[in-house]
Amino acid sequence: MREIAKAQLTVGLLAFFATMWELVIHLGNFTNILVFFGVLLLQLVVLLVLAYILIALLEWVHVFDLRTNAVLTLVVLVTFRMLATIGLG
Q: Which residue, 33, 47, 74, 75, has most beta carbons within 10 Å?
C-alpha cells in the first residue's frame, strides 16, 4: 500500500473516532438503533472521502511533506465536524 493511501485511511479513521463521541452522547435522540448506525456509517464514509480529497489536494500542490499534510487534514476534518455539530445543535 502506498504511503499516501495509508495516510488518507489513517487520518479518516482518526477523525471518525475523534468525532464519534458526539453521536454516542446523543444516542437517546435516535428513536431507531438502525438510524443511529446509519448515521455513524455515513459519518465514517464522509470523513474518509474528505480525508482522501484533502490529502490528495495538498500532495498535488507540494507545499508540505506527507506528515504535515496528514496532520493539517486531521485538524481540518475534526474542526469541520465539530463546527457542523455546533451549527446543527
A: 47
